[in-house]
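Bumping with the actual sequence this time:
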Amino acid sequence: MSGAGSARLLPWSSSDGNPCYLVTDNGDGYLSRVADSIEASQLDMAARLLSHAEALVREPKASARELRYVAARLVESLHETLRVARSRGGRLPRPVEPFHSPDGGPVPGNGDCAGPPGAPGG
């Protein structure tokens, strides 16, 4: 965790579709371990889906229906993967000084965000 009482974006939504957060100062609690397990499963499934999609795209006999189906699953998987990335990124410590690009300018998205959408200050 990045500090006591920090909010972790969980890999599921509420029944009405809102993001769920866990506020804890211990990243080793039961709910944190459940979230870790679900995130690992989502990332594993995304890797498997990507492999399947790559094979399907190379298949000249793939139907439009098959391609639309795999595209829909890829969209779902990308949403889950981005949620995992936001959750993990939100738990990284903030840099003391902003990174700069080789030309000396600031790097976009370099710790200048207040947090994930819906988080306090976000």
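The tokens above came from a reply further down the thread. The chain has two helices and two strands.
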